[in-house]
Amino acid sequence: MTNQEPDTLAELIEDCTELPAELRPAPASLPEGRTAAPWEVDEGCYQQVADLEVYV
Question: Which domain of life is it from (predicted)?
């Protein structure tokens, strides 16, 4: 038996589908969704871009 590295992505995918199920990783579970905290632009943010129009 010869082991040959895949030359293309398609070959790599095909090789991976031939793995026995017990050697494949379990599907990852996604964390529960959550509501994003509201955000506001504060004075510090405004100060960072105060003179930006000079560069335009």
Answer: Bacteria
